[in-house]
Structure formats: structure tokens, C-alpha cells
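The protein record passed on below.

***
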Amino acid sequence: MAEWHPAFEEYCETIFELAEDDIRVVQARIAERLDVSRPSVSEMMKRMALEGLIAISGTVISLTPSGLALGECVVRRHRLAERFMVDMLGLSWTVAHQEAGKWEHVISEQVEDAMMRVLGDPTTCPHGNPIPGSAYLAPNTITLSQVAVGDGFQVERIPEALEFAEGVLQYLEDVHLLPGSTGVVRAAAPDGTVTVEIDGRTVGVGQYASARILVSA
């Protein structure tokens, strides 16, 4: 993998993650995810197109094979770093996510291979999102909001969109809505809020999160 400026890595990572979550990749979505101005995104798109990292069709942006390879590399290292910091260092989800944003730009291939070996070839990050290039097998999932009242569920994935929503990641960790955890939907409000029982506690999950958390029923 050729070395790229961290800005190119950040944008390829963002485009990869938006597409992974089936979000239409346009400049507005990129600006929202990275918390930057639309003019800044527009200028970067021009640079990335010249570098052969993206293709633009109308308003929709996609990664070229070179851009996809770079995006997968950065995402893999980010999620592997999160797994290492949570499993080996005992850091919280929130801290691991923030720190992994720095580690992803400096992890070498040699260090990446060593981390995979030490961690036993993990297939997901702590939030259940697949590590590109791993032996990940996607389970059949629905969103938490689609689970009927009274039905049980198992948490499978906390999509990237929720990792960027302020306070959500910490809340989900605090109430034990973690991949592998099981619970029961106890109520569903008209506003989309879902009440679940998990680990003997009853907690509420707002519409934004319940419509994105992936579970197996």
C-alpha cells in the first residue's frame, strides 16, 4: 500500500463507511460525518478525483479500485486498533474509538499483522463492525426498531453512524447494549423510542439509535 496523506486516508475511510451502511454518498453526507464545510469537501473531491481515488457520477461519489484499497486498509487498522485497545488495554468504547482515529494513520503492515496474531485473528471491532480482509460472516439481521414487542433479540452490530453521534456510544456501553448481549423488547413508543430489558435492567433507546442498531431476532 502506497503512503498517502492522512487527509486522503480520512476521506476514503469515510466514503467506505458511508457506503457500507447503505448511505447515499454525496458531499453533504461526507461533510456531516467529518464535521467540515461543504466547500472543503468539494475541494477535496476534486483533488481525490485527480489522484484517481474516487469517481463522481452526478452527485454520487464512489471509490475507485485504488480508493477502495486505501479505504479498506484504513478501516481495517481503525477497527483492529479499537479491538486491541478494548480487549488488551481495557479502554472504553468511546476512548478506543477516539484513539483509533489516530492509530489508523500510523500502524504499519508489520504491526497490523502482529496485532492480528496477538488478538487471534478477530473478525469484528468491539462494536460488531467487520474488519475488512478478515473471515467475517455476516449474520441475518434486522434493526432493533423492527423487533416486535415481547420478542427477544441479540445485538450484532453498532453501525459507524452511531459511533459519531455524540454520547450514543458511551450510553450503549453503559447500558450493556453490546454485540453478543441478549434482551427483550418491552415497549415501542410512537416517536420510535424502544424500551428494552437487558441484563436485568430496563432502558430506553431513542429512534435514531433503534433504527440503526442491528440485531438477530
Observations:
- Residues 130 and 138 are 8 Å apart (CA to CA).
- The chain has a mean pLDDT of 95.
